[in-house]
Amino acid sequence: MIEAALKFLIQTLGNLFVIAVLLRFMMQLFRVPFRNPFAQFIVAITDFAVKPLRRVVPGLWGLDWACLVLAWLVELLVVTAGYWLDGFPFALAGGKVWPVMLGLAAVKLLSLTVYLIIGLTLIRAVLSWVNSDTPLMPVVYTLTEPFLRPLRRIVPMVANIDLTPLVLFILCQLVLMVPVLALQRALLGSL
């Protein structure tokens, strides 16, 4: 019972931090203005880990790769801790288990990224109906627009309602169900 509670706590806190680091990476990738209070909050809670890692992992092509490496390493810790708390025999598995753990961490990171896109799109849809003047809206708009804009070329408006968030939800769920699940099963099958 204590192991389940500890596993829940590690997964929750670890994944929340990974989401914050992924948000930081995406905000830089999509050029979100960092003068926004929400953007400043994300930078403030991730700076303690990102800044030291930048000395080791340089930026390339104008992107902060230290954020992605940090997210992947934290997810690796979360996955490894989860298996350890479940009683996985790391000592008996030998060295072949670590490439699988690295792969599982990458798959979990991809899965969290897709869930982050779903969550941001949902927040955008709700805010557009409730309060489009909130300080959070410019950040959410900038982060979701690169995913929704290509879909608007294909999906027409129906009675002045934009259905592209719904289409994006469906596409994200398909990504989670087919390639992400297949990768996870393939990695777990090699244990």
UniProtKB/TrEMBL annotation:
Signal sequence range: none
Gene Ontology cellular-component terms listed: membrane
Transmembrane domains' residue ranges: 6-26, 61-85, 97-118, 163-183
InterPro entries linked to this entry: CCB3/YggT
Keywords: Membrane, Transmembrane, Transmembrane helix
Pfam families: CCB3_YggT
Protein name: Integral membrane protein YggT, involved in response to extracytoplasmic stress (Osmotic shock)
High-level lineage: Bacteria, Pseudomonadati, Pseudomonadota, Betaproteobacteria, Nitrosomonadales
